[in-house]
UniProtKB/TrEMBL annotation:
Membrane-crossing segments per the record: none
Positions of region (Disordered): 173-228
Swiss-Prot/TrEMBL keywords: Hydrolase, Monooxygenase, Oxidoreductase, Signal
Chitin-binding type-3 domain sequence ranges: 216-262
Record-given protein name: Lytic polysaccharide monooxygenase
A single cellular component GO annotation: extracellular region
Low complexity: bias regions: 182-213
SMART domains associated with the record: ChtBD3
Highest rank taxon of the organism: Bacteria
GO biological process: carbohydrate metabolic process
Organism placement in taxonomy: Bacteria, Bacillati, Actinomycetota, Actinomycetes, Pseudonocardiales
UniProt xrefs under Pfam families: CBM_5_12, LPMO_10
Molecular function per GO: carbohydrate binding; hydrolase activity, hydrolyzing O-glycosyl compounds; monooxygenase activity
Length: 262
């Protein structure tokens, strides 16, 4: 306050009319990212792959509109654009539902999805403020094999956007398990030569136990849940009302946008 009075006195002394400086916001107050199928930053937050600072703020990949990079042009997140890294993929069918988790909402212009620089889908929100979670069903246009989807959340009243890259294995049956295990089948010995060992040498319960059964089970972090799944947490039962992959801090009691207490 003392500085403002001195500044006004100086301006008056030199014959300059006092004025108010208005700083335009350089970035949106919104934040968010794709939690399912897990985007690269979601996998970083889950600890599924070694990452730098992005593991602490997967929702903050924000840059000017019109970019085509996974890192939004931010050097501190440049690893997100490194396609040579062993990014986990999610097996999906020809149509995918992308689920966004918004930690801070903002008026939205459009949501866009690209593969190989070609836009495959766009959703216009007309500058409305979205909910805490947003889902889009996107047709991949008959593409198969490994595909990298660039998803862009264009903010409605600023020049900024949020960027996500999602690595998919198209044609894998629609599983959301990010860690395909082709070697587990090769560990089974031929049943024609050693019949007794076929049942004892296939220890694969750990792969199925990573997915919570619908209708029961304790809530766990770093786990994909579907709409309708039920879990127990702190002695209470909760129902999933929005498909997502959990993170630490997203306990059912703390995320009413994702879980309904029964």
């Amino acid at each position: 306050m003392e500085f403002k009075r001195k500044l006004a006195a100086v301006l008056a002394g030199v014959g300059v009319t006092p004025f108010i400086v208005v700083l335009a916001a350089g970035s949106a107050s919104a934040h968010g990212y794709i939690s399912s199928p897990p985007s690269r930053q979601a996998f970083c937050a889950q600890g599924a792959i070694p990452c730098g600072n992005i593991k602490y703020e997967p929702q903050s990949v924000e840059g000017p509109k019109g970019l085509t990079s996974c890192d939004a042009g931010l050097s501190q997140f440049s690893e997100l654009s490194d396609d040579s890294r062993n990014w986990p993929t999610t097996s999906v069918g020809g149509k995918v539902t992308f689920n966004w988790t918004l930690t801070a909402r903002h008026a939205t212009a459009t949501w866009q999805y690209f593969i190989g620089g070609q836009k495959i889908a766009e959703f216009n929100d007309g500058n409305k403020i979205p909910g805490a979670t947003v889902s889009h069903s996107v047709d991949l246009g008959g593409r198969t094999g490994k595909q990298k989807v660039l998803a862009v959340w264009n903010i409605g009243d600023t020049p900024m956007a949020f960027y996500n890259c999602v690595d998919l294995q198209v044609g894998g049956g629609g599983s959301t398990d990010p860690k395909p295990e082709p070697t587990t089948t090769s560990q089974k010995p031929p049943t024609t030569t050693q019949p007794p060992s076929s049942s004892s040498s296939a220890p694969k319960p750990t792969t199925t136990s990573q997915k919570p059964p619908s209708g029961g089970g304790e809530w766990a972090p770093n786990t994909p849940y579907k709409t309708g799944d039920q879990v127990t947490y702190s002695g209470a039962t909760y129902k999933c009302i929005q498909g997502h992959t959990t993170l630490l801090g997203w306990e059912p009691s703390a995320t009413p946008a994702l879980w309904q207490r029964l």
